[in-house]
Amino acid sequence: MASNFAIQNDEERSVRSVCGICHNHCNIDVFLRGGKVIRVEGVQNDPRTKGSLCSKGLAAVQYLNDPRRLLYPVKRIGKRGEGKWKRISWDDALNEIAEKFNSIKRKYEPQAVLFCRGQAASWGFSYDILVRLTHAFGTEPCMGSSECFVPRVLGEALTNGGFAMHHDFPKTDLIILWGYNPTFCTPTQQHFIFDAKERGARLIVIDPIRFHIGAKADLFVYIEPGTDLALALAMMYVIVEEGLWNQEFVNEWTNDPNLKELKKHLNGCNRDGIVYSPEWAESITGISKKIITDLAREYAKTKRACMLTGHGLEGRINVTQTGRATAILKSITGHLDAEGCDVLVPSGPPRNPKFFLNEIMVGKTLEEKPVVNFYIPPYPVKGVNYPLLMMCVGQVPTPDALRWIDEGHAKAAFIQGGNPLVMAPQPEEIRKTFDKLSFLVVVDPYISETAQMADIVLPAATYLERTEISWWKFEWYLPFLYLRQKVAQIGEARSEIQITIDLARKLGLEEYFPTDDPVYYMDEILRPTGITVAELQKHPEGIPYGTISYQKYKTEGINLPEGKVNIISRILEHYNFDPLPVYVDGSETPRKKDLARGYPIIAFSGRAGPMFVHCQQRSIPWLRELRPDPLAMINPKTASEYGITHGDDVLVESPRGKIKIKAEVTNKIGPMQIYIPGGWVESNYNNIGISRDLDPISGMANYMTCLCRISKL
Amino acid sequence: MQMGFFFDISRCTGCYSCEIACKQKNNLKPNAEANPGSTGPRWRRVLEFEAGQYPEAQISYVSLPCLHCGKPVCLQVCPTKAISKSIETGIVNVDKTKCIGCRMCIIACPFGAPQFGDSGLMEKCDLCSDRIKQGKSPACVAACPAKAIKFGSLEELEKLAREKAGKKLLGATQPSFFS
User: Fold this and answer.
1) Residue B172 Cα to chain centre, angstroms
2) Which of A194, A222, A682 is the mutation pick for testing B, counting most B CBs within 10 A?
3) How confident is the model at residue B35 (pLDDT cuts 50, 70, 90)?
4) What is the pTM of this model?
């Protein structure tokens, strides 16, 4: 492949590429001099970013040249976690991995080798090619989907047949951000929100913490963490009782004409006999019944309204039903796929179905296909207890994969771009589980906490060292294909895509991996689009593969049972789950007196700030300088009750563990709560978090909220 | 002509893009390695302010560069005449070869703009003079995801500020800054 970076020249020049520091994939110009990356900027005429870039993306040069990066493959020579390594060649590393994986496969079964994914390896093609490898090997990819986004999206997909991830900001009159802070996740599209505001659109933010974009809201609504489902049900109640729902859409396009069943359900005809009224929700969410009623009325009565939900609704055992409830709100108000609202989009370009080698996989009995929003294996997978999540994204859910290890079915694992020893609840339990593996391979730019346990660690390339097709985008969706360009090479790092291909060939799967050239596979998967890598090389501005359009259901229908929006979920009914969302608490709450005895404070977690993605970038100096230490937010009232002042070390304890963290005493948060930003190894919320409670539908762990006690150290 | 910045507080969400864009453009050396917990020079500083009590507390973010004052007090107090003001653009510059690191400027500056890195010499925002000459926006302006920062001549900024019900920052040093 042409390597742009190899051209030596003292003139400054730029290469159009795609950022990859998070999964939002903003277009960038990379500036080089003398073959070295000197700067990265946003693309000034890009319609999505308007030339902007976030702090993480702007620190690219420090990330690329981070002296802590792993530069060549290493093999562990000490005990697990001892940190003793020996440099080995790529050939030796891949030969040993292939030999171990093949011998385990021969002795047991293909499923005894887990091919796991984390966020850092990025989604899109690098994931698709791993699916090809696992199928060629005879198994499915694992993990990386029950952790955050997918369990919530599953709720939307079960309801609306897809995920409305394009938000029509330029035409909207109301933007509701619910547990979602674009300052963290999609900063480069914030200009759309402010342009809309200046046009007169209202911004409403629902969150337990008022900061960043929340500080700019026309209406800010504090909510108790984990109770969003109660708010959504009560909003539904107001809309149904006051007749604010969209008759035309509901009667023609949903499976509950006149909302007959929903109305009964909300009025107490449910498992618990609870009327989901604003009064009831006030006692759970802490939001006054007046605000709940006003919120429902405003959303229902504003014809062009966007509702963006986020990570704040995740990491609890009611996540999928919460996703269902917010999806129902979008539908009954007629906001689904409408102008100025949330618009359904494909999750990527049409891809060659043959690329995924589904025919290799056993058990050809076709199970009902609920949604095609994501790639779905059209067959049931053995040993999976959360089949709905598996069908939504095609990855073995994390709790299933961990169980396979604990029960001794899985003997080896290959982890790409994931660090479960930091990001999963109760890291010590994960460590014990991984310790049962006879062979562990980790692919990462660093020797991460998880890599410390590995037998072999392979150095992953950063996004500046990879040429690959890119399409994955959030929030303001552009159905365009772009090419990310390799502009550097540090040490012997290789891209995940290249590693997947090289490993497949060592595993003896040359029949499906006939060449080591990634371009062959990219062209192969893009076949239905008629777009090739060579053509993308000629079009740095990208090539469209689709359009954004409204009300597609009128021509395409809704891709669900009955061909309609499933207010009553036929798929959940089929799997013996509640077909209409029934309220359960998302996690531990002070309202459960027995749990709260001795642990009166709500601890909750989430993203660490606009400068970090998950547990990453802590070693990037410019970013670390912005937040040298993890800081736990505590309201001044609560702080003074416990004798805590700003900057004090605080001990946070749950029955499952304890952490030490510095206090940020602030009015951004309410009393009797403590916010512990996620992804910090040294003050890891997961040490006190809950690992055993799972969402019965998606298998998502309850890892965002629990009860705790605090004391000054 | 006098160049300056317009900062739209109603748009700033405290994402730190401007601060890192500035560090990248000017290759500002971080200090975290030598002194953990400390920061290197910040030619742009994103500051967070909190007022009032929960649940009514107001949180705001301000991104503050050098304000390229009409009557820069830093220039007046500098004993070595290291600080100058461009006649064409009004941009306040520092000549590091003349600076002796006495820090009179930081004592005098009402806005805390002068910065000191490892060299101990003063350094600060130069409004990306080189980029402006090339017809580009300053790095912070280009990178801002909320489009909260604008630059231009005082007349252009005055007009922008009027549209946003903003105004010129008052002060004895006559800062070229609108908000």
Assistant:
1) 17
2) A194
3) low
4) 0.96
Output the pLDDT for position A607: 92
Nearest to A631 by CA among A586, A674, A593: A674
Q: Compute the distance between CA of residue A204 and CA of residue A235 in angstroms, rounded to an integer.
A: 14
**Virtual CA dihedral for A69, B42, B135, A6, nearest 10 degrees?**
-10
Q: Are A164 and A323 in contact (CB under 8 A)?
A: no
What integer pLDDT is reported at residue A375 of this predicted model? Answer: 41
User: Could you read off the pLDDT of A608-624 as tens digits, one per residue?
Assistant: 999 999 999 999 999 99
Cβ-based neighbour number of residue A355 at 10 Å: 22
Neighbours of A383 (CB within 10 A): 14
With tokens 């093999």, the residue in question is A75
DSSP state of A614: T
CA nearest B60: which of B20, B11, B19? B11
How confident is the model over A207-235, as a mean pLDDT?
A: 98
Helix (H, G, I), strand (E, B) or coil at A708: strand
ipTM over 0.90: yes
**Of residues B21, B59, B145, nearest to A668 (C-beta):** B59
* Cβ separation A210–B57 shorter than 8 A: yes
Residue of chain B whose Cα is closest to the Cα of A216: B10
| pLDDT at res. A377 | 66
d(CA A172, CA A174): 6
In A154-294, beta strands by DSSP E: 166-167, 174-178, 202-207, 219-222
Backbone angles phi, psi at A416, to 5 degrees: -105, 120
Name which of A583, A606, A608, A591 is nearest A707 in CA terms.
A591
Quick check: A212 contacting B, CB < 8 Å?
yes
Contact yes or no for A190 and B145 at CB 8 A: yes
Tokens matching residue A524: 């192969």
Pick the residue from chain A with its C-alpha nearest to B143: A52
Nearest C-alpha in B relative to A667: B54
Dihedral sign for Cα atoms in the order A506, A452, A708, A208? negative
Q: Do B74 and B92 contact (CB within 8 A), yes or no? A: yes
pLDDT (tens digit, 9 = 90+) per residue, A95-149? 999 999 999 999 999 999 999 999 888 888 999 999 999 999 999 999 888 888 8
User: Mapping DSSP to helix (H, G, I), strand (E, B) and coil, where does residue B102 land?
Assistant: coil
The whole-number average pLDDT for the span A420-446 is 96
Phi and psi at A85, nearest 5°, equal -130, 155
